[in-house]
Amino acid sequence: FIAVHLFVFMPMLFRFGYRWDEVLDFTGAATDTYVGSGRWMQAVLRYVLGEGVHPWSSSFLACALLSAASVMQCRIFKWGSFFRDVAYGVMMLAIYQYAFVMQYAHQSDTIAIGILMLTLALQLLIRKGWTRDTAAAALIVGLAISIYQSLGLYMVGLLLVWGMLECARGDSKYAFKVACKSAAVIAFALLLWKCGKVASLEFIGEETQ
């Protein structure tokens, strides 16, 4: 998987120019921009990881994390063969969420972290049980959509793929139970995102939007 990701995104690893979004990070205005748009977890990760000064570093980390997410998702979906797993990994590369953000050194690694987090959340959601795993999944999803809000749609897509596969295998009853858990998890995640946005806006001294 990592070989496929590196091959596809090779131009991003060695692109030594910066676009406007990347230049914004070095002006000191990026944090306010992230928080103002509701991406407060993106601001936290950028503070922890530092800015994507070296074009190859963030892109390589993103490839490694996306490869890990691909492997985890293949194990969750149980495609049944090595070649199907590889085909799925290649298909994932066509997702717009990858193609767009991989062009920006300051977002590619954080979006990959978000996708890996959502994959972990899916693994927790499909386990049999309601309390600890479900609560952890809700927290993870909330943090992930605070990196980039459209990752919420990615989570919905993962759930739909898993649910359809379970129904095809004849376990629609359990798929329905997971769907109910997922609805509660996504609702809590949105509440967490909103609370985090309000708190982060207060922290940087901006008005709540």
Q: Could you please describe the fold and organization of this structure?
A:
With 209 residues, the chain is an all-alpha fold. Helix 6 runs parallel beside helix 9 and helix 11 runs antiparallel to helix 12. The N and C termini lie far apart (41 Å).
Q: What is the topology?
A:
Elements: H1 2-8, H2 10-13, H3 20-25, H4 30-36, H5 40-49, H6 55-77, H7 82-92, H8 96-101, H9 108-125, H10 132-145, H11 151-168, H12 172-204
Helix pairs in contact: 4-5, 6-7, 6-9, 9-10, 9-11, 10-12, 11-12
Essential attributes:
single chain; 209 residues; mainly alpha; 12 helices; 0% strand; flat
Beta-strand proportion: under 5%
Category by helix and strand content: mainly alpha
Distance between the termini: 41 Å
Secondary structure tally, helices: 12
Poorly predicted parts: none
Q: What's the rounded overall pLDDT mean? A: 77
Specify the biggest β-sheet: none
Rounded to an integer in angstroms, the radius of gyration calculated over CA atoms is 18 Å
What string, H for helix and E for strand, traces the elements in order? Answer: HHHHHHHHHHHH
Query: What is the global morphology?
Result: flat
Helical proportion?
over 70%
Let me know the number of strands. Answer: 0
Q: What is shown here, in short?
A:
With 209 residues, the chain is mainly alpha-helical. 75% of the residues lie in helices and 0% in strands.
